[in-house]
Design a protein that fits this description.
The protein is an alpha+beta fold. It has four helices and twelve strands. It has helices spanning about 1-50, 55-65, 90-130, 135-160, and strands at about 160-165, 170, 180-185, 190, 205-215, 215-225, 235, 240-245, 255, 270, 280-290, 295-305. The longest helix has about 50 residues, at about 1-50.
Length: about 300
């Protein structure tokens, strides 16, 4: 009986030890998988941050050496392993660094792919920048023509340059364009048809003239201010004879000369003259033109009741 009881106790003890060993194995496997996940996540984050910013040579060397660090201290299954079993060690650091190495190699491959794509893009841009001779040659010809045209216009403007020496033209004077404009060089001369400038009142007028030098010519337009600075002139006798009661028309005896076309009708006497009785009267004639210029003349009017000599 005692032998049977001892055998039963030994079998129970073995079963309990087997169960304990299985429980420990499960716990170790769970711990190992948990550590692998956390370390893999950390390595991925470190590789992303490292790839997003440039590293120095020292940092790169430090990263490379960190992947081959020595193993951690061994972890056994328990303080008192059962008989017939060997102590098993857990090396989480190897798993960590293995996954880290894999992640680093993946980052390197992705970096090489990115560099190759960037290189291809830059090469495409450089190829696009290359000039096509079929388009460059016509563009150069057109540019040369435009440049020659601009130079010609500049030289022509400098050779046919004139400056205005006077702006006011006195009404009634003989018009000569050279009195108003002067050429910048001796070989350049100015032409203008006087029939193109016929002012009929005061004010500003446009005048057209041509500047020539050799085969070059240019048509120009300028403004001239027409003024009247000359006083009118009253011509006629100093003494006239009229009958008693006669109305005097001064234009029958006197003529006014001026640029104002209506100047003759503006001739008048300073005071009204009474011809009601025979006598000799002094009178003053006056006239004002359109520019405000005036003229006057002192005369004597003889009023008679007899015949008037012609």
């Amino acid at each position: 009986m005692a032998d049977k009881e001892s055998k039963v106790d030994n079998s129970k003890e073995r079963d309990s030890k087997v169960r304990d060993r299985e429980i420990r194995d499960r716990e170790i496997r769970v711990d190992r998988s948990t550590m692998n996940r956390s370390d893999t996540t950390g390595n991925r984050q470190r590789s992303r941050s490292a790839s997003s910013r440039p590293q120095s040579a020292t940092a790169v060397q430090r990263t490379r050496t960190s992947t081959g660090r020595p193993l951690d201290k061994e972890k056994t299954r328990g303080d008192h392993p059962a008989k017939g079993t060997q102590s098993r060690t857990v090396r989480p650091s190897n798993a960590v660094h293995t996954s880290g190495a894999k992640s680093n190699s993946g980052v390197k491959r992705s970096d090489s792919k990115t560099r190759s794509k960037t290189y291809k893009k830059t090469n495409k841009k450089k190829n696009n920048v290359r000039l096509n001779p079929k388009t460059v040659i016509p563009a150069a010809i057109i540019l040369g023509i435009l440049l020659a045209l601009v130079i010609t216009l500049i030289m022509r403007a400098s050779l046919l340059k004139v400056h205005q020496i006077s702006q006011d033209y006195n009404m009634g004077d003989t018009f000569d364009i050279k009195n108003f404009f002067e050429a910048s060089s001796v070989d350049t001369y100015i032409e203008c048809d006087s029939n193109d400038f016929v002012p009929d009142k005061l004010g500003k007028y446009k005048v057209k003239f041509t500047v020539r030098r050799g085969k070059l010519s240019s048509r120009k337009t300028a403004k001239i201010n027409v003024v009247d600075e000359v006083n009118p002139y009253i011509s006629g006798p100093d003494e006239i004879e009229v009958k008693v009661g006669q109305d005097i028309n001064w234009s029958d005896y006197y003529t006014v000369t001026d640029a104002d076309p209506d100047i003759q009708s503006k001739l008048t006497s300073v005071k009204d003259l009474d011809t009601g009785k025979a006598r000799a009267v002094n009178a003053t004639l006056t006239v004002t033109d359109w520019a405000g210029n005036t003229a006057s003349k002192n005369i004597t009017v003889v009023v008679t009741d007899g015949d008037v000599a012609n």
